[in-house]
Write a structure and sequence with these properties.
Length: 341
């Protein structure tokens, strides 16, 4: 099967598995796993941050960041498409006892004006605005991304109101690859960044939360409470190190293939609209065809995708989707357009 449901479906490459098997490990809860430390230091250095903490998932790193940057009864500002709001099980309310102010930026990309409109005045009737959270790239926005200039404008607003800024960087390397921006610049603008290793970078498990030494110290306590303390986690951390060393530059291949799929979809009779493709996510809506009908036709031809809203489909390119796979998907789309499904 050609699996385009997500870039999380990838399995470790042979070389990545070899790196994992050669990892030196220890008990990370005691702070004794050298490979975990190396991954945390490496990720922090990439983003010019002081420290990092390795966690099982991006949901955990996001939720830890929100927990350490807010207090109960406060409010988090984010776009309505945000992963932290839609796909983390109500964690903001459950873990941090905070409310959420939802905005509606173009494809999930907020402007400083959007954010300014959501900052509450000092009035006891309103929750205290405590944190601004961005997502880069925006999953539900079809892989749309922020540039550093856009982030800088929002950071200046945050500084004016003394508000921390968090980045859900689930696909931050896709954003950096597409924009050409420098990762080290991010350290100037964000208080915390969640860096996922198990999506486009192809590691099997894990995310790293980077920030100041003081914030990471707090994060370690919260990770423990969340049950995220792992023991000989260096085997997983080694995969993350390998991914950072070998799988960042190749993201351009995923973007090119996604763009070809976008162009192919735009001419199809059963496609109503395709969101602009900037990175590796393709989201399109159907006309005169249900999502079940489309997905079943795909599956019969050995291709997997997922429903992503009313009459919408999402496909995501990744390191296991090569040119041969692309040729097959394009061929199936052409065949579906020639005859009733």
């Amino acid at each position: 099967m050609i699996d385009l449901r997500s870039d999380t479906v990838t399995k470790p490459t042979t070389a990545m598995l070899e790196a994992m098997m050669q990892a030196k490990v220890g008990d990370d809860v005691f702070g004794e796993d050298p490979t975990v430390k190396a991954l945390e230091d490496k990720t922090a250095e990439i983003f010019a941050m002081e420290a990092g903490i390795f966690c099982p998932s991006g949901t955990m790193t996001n939720q830890i960041a929100i927990k350490i940057l807010t207090q109960p009864q406060q409010e988090v500002v984010c776009d309505k498409r945000s992963h932290i709001y839609n796909y983390e099980g109500g964690g903001i309310a459950f873990n941090s006892l905070c409310s959420v102010r939802l905005l509606d930026g173009p494809r999930g990309v907020l402007s400083s004006e959007d954010v300014a409109s959501a900052i509450n005045s000092d009035d006891i009737h309103y929750p205290q605005t405590a944190l601004i959270a961005l997502e880069n790239t925006v999953n539900k926005g079809g892989g749309a991304y922020y540039t550093l200039n856009q982030i800088k404008s929002i950071k200046e607003l945050c500084q004016k109101h003394q508000l921390p800024l968090h980045l859900d960087g689930a696909r931050v390397f896709n954003a950096l690859t597409a924009s050409g921006d420098n990762a080290k610049e991010y350290g100037k603008y964000f208080d915390t960044i969640s860096v996922c290793l198990s999506k486009g970078l192809g590691a099997p498990v894990g995310s790293v939360l980077v920030g100041s030494e003081a914030l990471v110290k707090k994060a370690k306590r919260v990770r423990k409470v969340f049950g995220g303390g792992m023991r000989q986690a260096g085997y997983l951390a080694a995969a993350g190190i390998y991914a950072l060393d070998h799988h960042v530059q190749r993201l351009t291949d995923d973007h090119k293939r996604a763009k070809i799929l976008e162009e192919e979809l735009r001419g199809k009779s059963f496609v109503d609209e395709v969101l602009p493709v900037d990175t590796n996510i393709i989201i399109f809506s159907l006309r005169n065809m249900s999502t079940d009908t489309f997905l079943n036709a795909f599956k019969e031809n050995g291709i997997l995708a997922i429903p992503f809203g009313k009459n919408e489909i999402r496909m995501v390119t990744h390191l296991e989707f090569d040119d041969d796979g692309l040729e097959k998907v394009v061929g199936v789309l052409k065949k579906m357009d020639r005859k009733p499904v």
